[in-house]
């Protein structure tokens, strides 16, 4: 069964002014769709693999034949990572969106980073300094939250870690509005973060 582009959980204009409508159209309808199309093409002759959830594919790349493994890693990662990214944002000013974290993730952030501002600083600096395309990630490892960055469409799932939070720092994510000011995009992004979804993912990460 072919993979399909998951619809956005909000309108294309919902993330204004922090992410503009045109960027959201291009990012979702063009870039994300291309990853879906390329993954389907790579698995056209492997129906057993194409039947698996994309997250399972990425978490078990060793089960993918070597001749298509890199393609599945890149294209499948693009599908899986974007599927998460869209859910981590919401319309500013609505309940659970932006502002300070709440619930269990707020307590864990305080325990591991001191406070939310220190965590944001660590996350933003890690993502801002990431060379080239990729993502900043928040994972839970050995009982603590950890901020990492990974290249291109690589995922912590391939390392046995469950992603709690990510931010996309490929240039197409922010360039129309922020040009080369990646740090400005990273700073603005916290206004649209969906803390309810992050708490849900944190609960899964803790098991």
Structural class, from helix and strand content? mainly alpha
| Number of helical segments with 4 or more residues | 9
In angstroms, what is the radius of gyration? 17 Å
> Major sheet: size, sense and barrel closure?
3 strands, antiparallel
**What is the number of beta strands?**
3
Shape: globular
Distance between the termini: 30 Å
Number of domains: 2
Sequence stretches where pLDDT stays below 50 over 5 or more residues: none
Give me the CATH superfamily of the largest domain: Iron/manganese superoxide dismutase, C-terminal domain
CATH fold description of the largest domain: minor pseudopilin epsh fold
* H/E element sequence: HHHHHHEEEHHH
Any chance you could write out the topology, listing elements then pairs?
Blueprint: H1 21-42, H2 47-50, H3 54-59, H4 66-87, H5 103-113, H6 116-129, E1 134-141, E2 144-151, E3 165-168, H7 175-178, H8 182-189, H9 195-206
Antiparallel strand pairs: 1-2, 1-3
Helix pairs in contact: 1-4, 6-8
């Amino acid at each position: 069964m072919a993979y399909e582009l998951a619809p956005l959980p909000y309108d294309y204009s919902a993330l204004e002014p922090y992410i503009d409508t045109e960027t959201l159209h291009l990012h979702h309808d063009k870039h994300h769709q291309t990853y879906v199309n390329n993954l389907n093409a790579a698995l056209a002759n492997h129906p057993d693999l194409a039947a698996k959830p994309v997250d399972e594919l990425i978490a078990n790349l060793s089960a993918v034949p070597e001749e298509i493994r890199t393609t599945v890693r890149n294209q499948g990662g693009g599908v899986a990572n974007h599927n998460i990214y869209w859910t981590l944002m919401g319309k500013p000013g609505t309940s659970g969106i932006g502002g300070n974290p709440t619930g269990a993730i707020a307590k864990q952030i305080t325990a591991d980073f001191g406070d939310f501002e220190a965590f944001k600083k660590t996350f933003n600096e890690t993502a801002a300094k990431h060379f080239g395309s990729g993502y900043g990630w928040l994972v839970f490892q050995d009982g603590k939250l950890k901020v990492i960055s990974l290249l291109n469409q690589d995922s912590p799932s391939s390392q046995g870690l469950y992603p709690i939070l990510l931010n996309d720092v490929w240039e197409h994510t922010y360039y129309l509005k922020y040009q080369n000011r990646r740090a400005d995009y990273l700073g603005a992004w916290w206004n649209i973060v969906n803390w309810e979804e992050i708490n849900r993912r944190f609960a899964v990460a803790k098991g």
